[in-house]
Amino acid sequence: MSRRGSLVKREAIVQRLRSRGRALFDDPPPSLRFSDGVTRFTRELRRYPHAFVFACIFDRQVPSQRSEQATLELARRLGVFSFPALARLTKKRLRAAMTRPTKLHRFHGDMTVNIYEAIRLIESKYAGDAARIWNDSPSAAQLVARFREFRGMGPKLANVAATILARDFHIGLRDLSGIDVSPDVHVGRALWRLGLLPRDASADQVIRRGRQMNPSFPGLLDLPLWEVGQSWCHPAEPECAACYMRDVCPSAPKARSRFTSEFHFHHS
Ligand code: SF4
Known about the structure:
This protein is mainly alpha-helical. It has helices at 3-26, 36-43, 49-58, 64-78, 83-87, 91-99, 108-125, 140-148, 155-167, 185-193, 203-213, 222-231, 256-259.
């Protein structure tokens, strides 16, 4: 294929990802939303804004619904959840709630420290009101930087937290260019199969490619790439027939063009 041909093809891939990203951002399917109980809980951002922060901190190597349930269960075990009551908790009391009657999280020891330190940071920097992390219309870059100050919140969690606030809670952010694609294993594999990155691309390469593809809001491409990688683009035997990228994907079987109209993608 000529250089121009491959550029046109690449642009078609990026456009498809942008369209799907916009659809997922504007109307996320139930599977991407917070679970019912937690949605009701965290939706009360005015009353329990710290619940959102805790759920994000718990979201490490567990399904996201488990992290949300851990937040609910912590509140239930403690019997109190107002911030003034949490600020009075000792680390010993918090550790007991994290471990009895069962371990609340697979990294319960680390999570005890993370939650305890989160309470301290919310107390000292945000006057006990976690909503101050996001309610002054920060830029996305500022918001991500604020989340990264919490112990245990790496770049991936901080970007996801900012995206959820913008997408699900409609928190106004001045500039979305600071939310990046998460260098997730599914995202990396999808980028490789789509011919957008080498097979063993680094996390930095994934982030840079996201910025090149959608500079105004790189994180918009995160969900479609994750969705493709997680749902169909398996490490072995990708299910190209079911994937909405198949008619533009260089790795899909050659016969794909015969099926393009039959399986036309309707979400964009
Ligand atoms: S068409 Fe196939 S190879 Fe290409 S991204 Fe989809 S599942 Fe992966």
